[in-house]
Write a structure and sequence with these properties.
Blueprint: H1 2-41, H2 46-75, H3 84-123
Amino acid sequence: MENNAVKEYEDKVDEMTAVAFQIILHAGDARIASEEALKALHTFDFEAAKKKVDESFDCLLQAHQIQTDLIQKEAGGEKYEISLIFNHAQDTLMTSMTQCRLTRELCTLYELLYNRIEEKGEKK
């Protein structure tokens, strides 16, 4: 009976590690897409920036869904050991979410300012 409990514990640890790495993967991809959106703004390529912002939010959605699935399992009674890797995954997801939201706002602001400058230039 004791060996069964150890095996169950090891399986849960392995599951949490796999979940954590999936969150890190998708959150990291979101951050990269967000950075690429900002780089597109350097050349005023608003279409490319918007595509990269959309891509970043698609990645965030994947990471968030993995997190939500885990929360639902825990709410259903499953217990998990939280590890440093899982904490890192949560931190990575939260910082990526913040970065992607700020990038989306910066893209909107850049485009508004660019259009305003263009309008003023045409009026002269």
